[in-house]
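ok so I'm stuck.
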Amino acid sequence: MVKKEIEKTKDYKALLGDIKSILNKNLTKAYKAVDNIKVQTYWQIGERIAREELKHKNRADYGRRVIENLAKDLGLSKRTLYEIAQFYDTYPIVRTVSAQLSWSHYTTLIKINSKPKRDFYESISLQNSWSVRELRKRIGNKEFEKAKKKGEIIVRLPKQLPAPEDVFKESYDWDFLELERSHEEKELEKALLNRIEKVLLEFGNGFAFMGSQMKILIAGQYHKIDLVFYHRLLRCLVLVELKIGKFRREFVAQMNEYLTYMREHDMLEGEKDPIGLIICKEKEEEEVHYALGRLRKEIFVAEYKTKLPSEEEIKSKVKKMDKI
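replied:
not stuck anymore, here's the structure
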């Protein structure tokens, strides 16, 4: 398939749009040199590329052609994109990706074809907080082979469950919703329910949809929780309130009331306390900080966007990210 034919296909346009969305929602944090955000971003891109390749597995050379086009359109090198694809292929389960290792650690580890050998170096890198330079030095010194010869290989990769702050995002890109610029909360909720599969993909791994407009009775008055999810890894309910305007502190009081009710009346044995997620059109970080106070680990506040930035803005951000 020639380059122009790929560019014109609906699937390729969807792929390009999805990857732009993944990049945009993570780059702001990446600018602060939090390398783990870069690792998580690249894992998501790798997962999206893998899904696209699987959809066209019967078309020879499709994967290579797609990466060539993405490299040009996103301003990333082909080498980086191939590393991203290989990274996801090596670590297809996001829970196995450690927050303690940088992207440079992972580009070194994915070059090791033997899984026992790679697990060995990953494990001792985590245990000893090795720098990338030290990891490469130890690989060059054949530490694995020496340990294997002595019968000293013990691999203990940590079983990591995510913390709530690692699950919820600062911003959600809902560019797939067909909404007017000025819309009501009911219209937003209806649009989300109509595209619930894409909503779950945007929320990330572990979310399961439980229902909408869940009724609870407090002081003789019915209240309705906009959306309710369950998170398999956090093992708790996630209550979502949708707000079409700017964040206001009274949203926190409302959510805290709902969480208290669910904690006292609707928890099953083995579940952890429910978590609240307020998603609004815009927010001021300082106001959110003081409004949440000690509730910041129980209630999270995010923005939503229904339009992606321009192509030039994306390319500019991607080029900056590649230098991090």
